[in-house]
User: What shape does this take?
Amino acid sequence: MNQGMYPLAASMVNQLNRLDQISNNLANVNTHGFKQEGLTETTFNHYLDRAKDEGFTPSKINTITNNIPKIDSKFIHGEVGAVVSTGNTLDFALEQPDTFFKVQNKNGDIVYTRDGAFKTMDNLLVDSNGNPVLNNDNEPIVTDTDVSTQLGVVQIDYSNLQKIGDNNYKARNEDEVAPFDNNNGLIISGALEKSNVNSVTTMVHLIDAHRRFEQSQKAMTSIDELNGKIIDKIGNNTR
Assistant: This one.
């Protein structure tokens, strides 16, 4: 196969991953507290450099030919979204960008969210999925009293978080989760944080990823057609 096919095919795979990521961001433009994600891209030589640091010595041919683009990692944009007043006593927004509410999911695990659109169910404070919201002692919050003072808030670096769906996160290392003794100055009552996705910018990125995919696809088609012409010409000369 023509060597030019490999980086082009890899580029198409990367753009498909970008399209999936960008589409997910765009689909959550109206999700409370949603944080958009991004992807970083590098070449295979980057991984050869890593291997070299670990004692593996790549050959010169490896270094020259392995300039194939590859998705390297996924990251979360932690900027705070716009905070809008709702007047609902069970709506809460977080002041700081790296703070989260605690929720107990259906498996009994503690997960984290910035979506403060809570409601009452069976005399308990729950999130939009019906999961109990927890206090500082990791206990469900009873709605008989003022819930705003009971909300448990923790601080987590985004590099220690993994998205698990339903606008929730789990910590990669629970030891690095820092709970606050109280939520004074950390929450805004009667308000919600909107998604930090900019719909206009995200649409531009979506179009860009689609065009890059098409460019790679057309380049592969051109190489294939050129190879076909060369084969036909060589074949005619040998008859």
